[in-house]
Structures are given as structure tokens and as C-alpha cells.
Amino acid sequence: MSIELKKRFDRIVDILVQLQSKRVVKAQELADRFEVSLRTIYRDIKSLEQAGVPLIGEAGTGYSIMEGYRLPPVSFSREEALSFVATEKLAQKFLDKESSQRYSAALLKIKAILKSNDKDLLSSMEDQIVMKQQAVPLFLDQVPHILSSALEAISLKKQFEVNYQGIRDEQAMARTIEPIGIVHESGFWYIVAYCLKRQDFRQFRSDRFESAKITETNFSKSHISIANYLAQKKQDEQPKSLVKLSVKREIASHLRWERNYYGFVKEIVGPEWVEMHFQSPDLDLEFPRWLMMFADHVRSIEPERLRKQVISLLEESLNTIKKQGES
């Protein structure tokens, strides 16, 4: 079998798996997933139909398999079987306790159909992958179900009663929210929801919930999708300023660990200095405070406004330390 023919065969099998995993699959979705043209997908769909797979749909809309038709589970490759170990470890670290347990239960059913050799391989590899917990827990112990409950509230369109402590709150406050989606960014999970108290959408960080429960009350109104919310949020962001820094080469590696959180665009590496470019919406607080950690190793800072803000913060810090020494 030629390489191209094998690739096509594997793709057609994967398309069949996709069709069995969702009620309707759009041709464009398949084309994007396998990085091929729509024409190629239409040809592969035709091959499945010729092989006797009862498909419903047409080009330009979507495809589904006739109800009741199912093939036996597709066997997994050695590499796919090994990926189960890593994904289970990731679930244990990044999902709440209840969601992680549900994932492990579902994965156990998948493991049950593996070949004996693959089962032994997974057992031997489970102890070889260690996921250390991050310094700030993603969830509080008293709410081990926040993600799974939020997902259930989203699917049922039921209101969510929570006790939540925002960054400016001295203590947790009771709120009723209507969640529309979940986002993971900057190392934390955020539940995006319409807050009845604020009469607007808010992002609620997973580690700030002290309690949460689904009510029997339906959403107060229809809401936009999470995709539309994120698109609108991007439009509403403050205009970004171009920032240029020249950093000593031996220090540049330390900035690389966190620079993506601050709008990093590109870098130009020189013999002794690295010029880094950023697009930042915040030149008054967040960016300059981050830059203060490396200020003694930075040769030039643009724009001038940012340079002045760093100087002001450094002088303020120095004055505060001096006053503490005098008291």
C-alpha cells in the first residue's frame, strides 16, 4: 500500500469515527480537522457510502449516520493507547475532583477494549508521569464539583447560586449567575456567566468559589454564545501600545517564561542584547510592575510613557522602604 493510499485510508477511518462521535458533522469541520480541501472530504464521504455506511446529508450542510447503525469500536494504536495515560494525569491536575472522577470512569471503559499488551503497557507507564500541583489551587476543597456543576447548569440552562469572592471583595458574597461557557486562560479556569446582580456578563475564577449549587430556576433570558462573548470582549479591549525592550541576552531567557502573558509579539536577537516587542493594553500597572523585576538589566524602554511609569514605581518603592527603615 502506497503512503498516499494509507493516509487516505486512515483519514476515512478517522472520518467514520468522527461521524459516530457527533450527531451532525459539517464537511468544513472535517476539512479543517484533517487539513484537506472540501473536495477531498466529499470524495472520502462518497467512499464511505460506497462501502455501505448509511449516511444522511449533503454537501454544504452536514452529515450524520443513520440511527441504529454502529460499527464495533475501532482499535487503538500503541501511541494512542499511551496518550490515555497523559490525558488522565492532565485531567487529575486541571479538572475539579468530580469531573476528574467522571473522566477516569469513562476512560476505564475505553481501556477495557484494549489489547492485553496495551493494558500492561499503560499499567507500567502510569507511575512514570508525575503532575505536580500548582502553587495556587485551581479549586477550593469545599467546591470539588464547580466545573461539572457549571457544565450541567449550562446544558440545562438553569441558574447557579454561588458564594464568590472577587478580587476586590473582603469576603465571599452570594450571587445568582447564568453560566454560558468555561474558559481556561493564564493558568486558571473561568466560568463566563450573566450576573443577575450586575446585570452584565462576568468571568468568575474557579478558585474563588466557596459554594455553588444548581437551582430549578430557568435562565431569565436568552444569552449570547461563549464564542460571541469572547469576540465582543476582544473588540472592547483597550487599544494596545507597542512596547520595545532591549534586554541583556543572559537575562532574556527569564522573560521568555512569562512574556506571552504580557502580549509578546517578536524578538530580535543581537550579540549582547535581545530586543523584545510587545502589544500591551496596560502601561500603567500590570506591565510596568512585571518589568520592574528585570529593570536593572534593560537598556532601553519604549514608549517614553512606560519608561516614566517604571521610574515612578521604582522611586515610590524606594521611598516606602526608606520610611520603613526610619520608623
Automatic annotation (TrEMBL):
Signal peptide: none annotated. It holds the Pfam family WYL. PROSITE patterns: HTH_DEOR_2, WYL. InterPro entries: CBASS_pafABC_assoc_protein, DeoR_HTH, HTH_11, PafC-like, WCX_dom, WH-like_DNA-bd_sf, WH_DNA-bd_sf, WYL_dom. Keywords: Transcription, Transcription regulation. Residues 8-63 form the HTH deoR-type domain. Transmembrane segments: none annotated. The keyword Glycoprotein does not apply. It comes from the Bacteria. GO terms for molecular function: DNA-binding transcription factor activity. SUPFAM superfamilies: Winged helix' DNA-binding domain. This is WYL domain-containing protein.
